[in-house]
Predict the 3D structure of the following.
Amino acid sequence: MKRASLITLMLLGALGASQTARAVEYTLPSDGSRLVGQNQTYTVQEGDNNLQTIARRFDTAAMIILEANNTIAPVPKPGTEVIIPLQLLLPDVPREGIVVNLAELRLYYFPPDGKSVQVYPLGIGQLGLETPEMTTRVGQKIPNPTWTPTAGIRQRSLEKGVTLPPVVPAGPNNPLGRFALRLAFGNGEYLIHGTNAQSSVGLRVSSGCMRMFADDIKALFAQVRVGTPVRVINQPVKYSVEPNGMRYIEVHRPLSQSEMQNTQTMSYTLPVGYSQFASDKGTDKSMVDKAMYRRAGYPVVVSQGVTPAATGTTPVLSVQNGMPATANETRITQ
């Protein structure tokens, strides 16, 4: 979709003052619940050059903020209130190791103690060079990696007038950053790594690997071991019937397969059980249809006879001067 490409270019524009990324950590819910966190609002400050600058304050993806605020400009004016979508439904997969949901541009890490989950923004493969879905494991941990451009990357660079060296040594100019996790998938060509282009995190711009902010990959690298399970999934639609009976659906824009596709209107591959959930007597079908049309990227209530404004389950906290107020079950840490 051409509009999406324009937005991506604007988000990649002048990055504001450097912000230290912080891991967003949630206490894992019990009793089968999948709902964690709270949404917040943030008042745009002078010096917030674009959505990517704001996203870094909350360690989230600019495209996720754009989903939640579908009428906002990529460079919002000071004083604009922005929804920061920090409430989410956990993916419908085992809560272990690393889980990447491509549709969310998020990486989930479930530490072995089973008490929490850390959520990080992620850059993924661009059109034509998509990051594949996979079930694998961490095959190798590589501190201070060198980068050997593939033949395809070398050719694409030549077409842009750039001649790449055979090997880029470790250091500040290395596209892999300071830490890399090689996945035991295919020929080992897919990595989760840092980047020397921090403004690319949270966007679809890589050649298939997954990029993280420097502080995020450093934190993740220190925790995971070789052999840690890794699942890369594509779940743009998530839903949950919570232990208290409340029903939620979280809908993200699907990943387009061509420039001409409109992610606001293109169809979905729906998850298993969705039809039963949507047609159940406890679900308000009109609210589901509205959520599927809006594609806000955060959980909304779709319980029969209940309006989101009346439930109090998605409180929105006011944020001033760049630092978020955190919910009881959410921690934003160094």
Observations:
- Helices lie at 2-11, 51-57, 62-68, 151-159, 214-223, 274-279, 285-294, 308-311.
- DSSP finds eight helices and 20 strands in the chain.
- The two ends are 36 Å apart (CA to CA).
- The chain has a mean pLDDT of 84.
